[in-house]
Design goal:
heterodimer, A: alpha/beta, Transcription Regulator spoIIAA, 5-stranded mixed sheet, elongated, B: alpha/beta, Rossmann fold, 6-stranded mixed sheet, 9 helices, globular, binds adenosine-5'-triphosphate, binds magnesium ion
Chain lengths: 364, 249
């Protein structure tokens, strides 16, 4: 039987069983009764209660508390042993409130943010130094590394990324050619499309597009793998086994990405030039032979070398940034998601800034 | 109280993972208000049995009835009704990491009742108090110790005052005093709310305190089912050894 609340003057009684489904209704009834009185006592007879659960117990405590707010003393009487016992077990006490988390002021938050950013930057430098140290040490001695890790990582980072890198570079080459074709045709400068595509792919688009794709693909994988290992204490386990996590986990990835990135960006450049060739052939009436000769002539060794230098640098950035965010993860599973997202944003940002920097150094 | 059906029935249940059989022809009746302790060596399938009993895993043969309803034949709304009366404590807690502890405990209350928020806050605090976690509601699960996580998960399992509680190693990782307190809590809940419990535990002290009956799993089968005192003289070598040696590794 659902609970029934009867209020007569200064006394009330509840009958039936007071459980979760009754809570909202009975609380509203109490609330109405409390609203019309101040500074008095409400005596509630519980002898008619046959059953109560934690919901009911919390309700009775809540009524006491709300009564206090209106200067009404609510007294419960006549509860049978069972009901009293359950009320005791589930008593939430007076003013039971979940403690609030401390809210920081604006200034404090700025300070904390600044401090964390600075500390993070120092950690990043430390990690970069460690990674370099251990990758050179790893060339000399194989101790502390993981057998076969390099090959697995190279397959994962390089070979598996091949289809998407090639498709995107092909399209980028074709798009560049299409956009410039319309302009060049007006001046009868059709042949220069080959120069344009070859130079921009080799110097910029090849390495940059590859880096952005790998930042999204492999950078995120590195960050989430290391972050997961951190929150599940796997990193701690490695440390207590006397294994350096940077040497064991980061360095194989560093080798793999540093090798794969230049190779991928060379392929990306070639495929991009091919994309331009097809557009030039279809739109600008250039024969493949003419286009190819022009492209080869315009490219200098410097273009190729700067492209390669850039792509190796991008590889290092992506790997260390991914690892850095992975090690810095806070919280549990949800932290892994957050840190992975942050790492991809940071890696792409860093790649573009570095690219800008290289252009300044190499060409001005 | 007399009930026509046991509150939970496992009927000739067989189960396994991808062809590897873990449980074979398990039969088990659990009566209202009893505490059944499931025992057995590590890896023998206790957690697997529990997961089948709450419908998380489908058996290869056999059936499970909770409150008289065959849970593998039940449709979604029926199953939800059953699950509202069931509390489950997972071996690794399974708190939602992205939510604060008090939000974790409040999930079932918010989803399955229309209790107003002020009363929910009270209930959450009361349930956290039961497991001695008063004042930790504002923390994230990742900010708790292993044992605290386990207890917070127990508070969540108890949120709706379930009729039956399945608890996978509720006292793993707890000190003897906290374990004793938790056992008292389970006994109290059984006494006052008539809660039925299926508990997996290896703690001998715990078993002595709470078990009405024990089910001893070994080699895919229930090797022994009965009271603790019967178990000690049951004549089954491995069961007697368990009580002599304490805990299996
Ligand atoms: N998801 C899974 N996939 C495949 N096999 C599993 C899976 N979960 C458990 N097993 C296997 O089922 C068997 C029983 O596992 P279960 O987790 O039920 O053991 P347990 O009795 O609870 O052990 P413990 O006391 O260590 O918790 C084990 O041999 C395990 O390898
Ligand atoms: Mg288990």
């Amino acid at each position: 039987m659902p609970a029934r609340l009867v209020i007569e003057g200064d006394s009330a009684h509840i009958e039936g069983s007071l459980t979760f489904p009754d809570v909202r209704r009975v609380l509203a009834e109490f609330e109405r009764a409390l609203a019309v009185r101040t500074g008095s006592t409400l005596e509630v007879d519980l002898s008619g209660l046959t059953r109560i659960d934690s919901g009911g117990a919390a309700l009775l405590d809540e009524v006491t508390e709300r009564g206090r707010g209106r200067n009404v003393r609510v007294a419960y009487t006549g509860a049978c042993d069972e009901v009293a016992e359950i009320r005791r077990i589930f008593s939430s006490g007076a003013g039971a409130r979940v403690a609030e988390r401390e809210r920081a002021g604006l200034l404090q938050r700025c300070g904390v943010w600044g401090y964390h950013t600075w500390a993070g930057f120092l950690e990043f430098l430390q990690l970069t130094a460690d990674t370099f140290y251990w990758s050179f040490a790893g060339l000399v001695s194989k101790r502390g590394g993981r057998k076969g890790a390099f090959v697995t990582q190279a397959l994962l980072i390089g070979v598996d990324a091949l289809p998407v890198v090639l498709t995107i570079s092909f399209l980028v080459g074709a798009i560049l050619a299409l956009q410039s074709a319309a302009q060049l045709r007006q001046f009868g400068a059709n042949i220069f499309v080959a120069d344009l595509i070859a130079v921009s792919m080799a110097r910029e688009m090849g390495p940059l597009m590859t880096a952005i794709i790998l930042a999204g693909r492999s950078g995120s994988a590195i960050a989430s793998e290391i972050a997961t290992m951190t929150v599940t204490e796997e990193i701690d386990a490695l440390k207590t086994m006397g294994i350096n996590p940077v040497r064991y986990i980061v360095v194989p990835k560093f080798y793999a990405i540093s090798l794969c990135m230049p190779l991928l960006s060379i392929l990306a450049t070639l495929v991009g030039i091919l994309g331009g060739l097809i557009v030039a052939f279809l739109y600008l009436d250039l024969t493949p032979a003419v286009y190819t000769r022009e492209a080869i002539e315009i490219l200098t060794a410097k273009d190729i070398v700067t492209g390669l230098v850039k792509s190796v640098a991008f590889a290092g950035l992506i790997c260390t940034i991914g690892a850095h965010y992975g090690f810095r993860v806070q919280g549990g599973a949800e932290g892994v998601g957050r840190t992975t997202t942050a790492s991809v944003v940071a890696a792409i940002f860093a790649v573009v800034v570095a690219d800008c920097f290289f252009s300044l150094i190499f060409y001005f | 109280m007399d009930k026509p059906h046991p509150i939970a029935e496992v009927q000739s249940l067989s189960a396994g993972f991808g062809g590897r059989s873990v449980l074979e022809d398990i039969n088990l009746d659990i009566h209202e208000g009893e505490i059944l302790v499931v025992l057995g060596k590590s890896g023998c399938g206790k957690s697997t049995l529990l997961k089948h009993m709450v419908g998380l895993l489908k058996p290869s043969a056999g059936s499970v009835r909770l409150f008289g309803i065959d849970i593998f034949a039940a449709d979604e709304p029926e199953m939800v009704e059953v699950l509202k009366k069931v509390g489950v404590l997972f071996q690794y807690g399974a708190l939602l990491n992205s939510l604060y502890v008090h939000e974790n405990v409040a999930i079932p209350l918010e989803q399955h009742t229309d209790v107003p928020p002020s009363v929910i806050r009270r209930l959450v605090e009361a349930k956290l108090g039961l497991v001695r976690l008063t004042g930790t509601g504002h923390l994230l699960p990742s900010e708790l110790s292993g044992g605290m996580r386990k207890r917070a998960a127990l508070a969540r399992a108890l949120a709706l005052d379930p009729d039956i509680l399945f608890a996978d190693e509720p006292s793993a990782g707890l000190d003897p005093m906290t374990t004793a307190h938790q056992d008292d809590l389970l006994l109290e809940l059984r006494e006052d709310l008539g809660m039925t419990m299926v508990v997996v535990t290896h703690e001998l002290a715990s078993i002595h305190r709470i078990a009405d009956r024990i089910a001893f799993l070994e080699d895919k089968k229930i090797l022994f089912l009965g009271t603790v005192s019967d178990a000690k003289g049951c004549g089954v070598e491995i069961v007697e050894e368990f009580f002599r040696m304490g805990t299996f590794a």
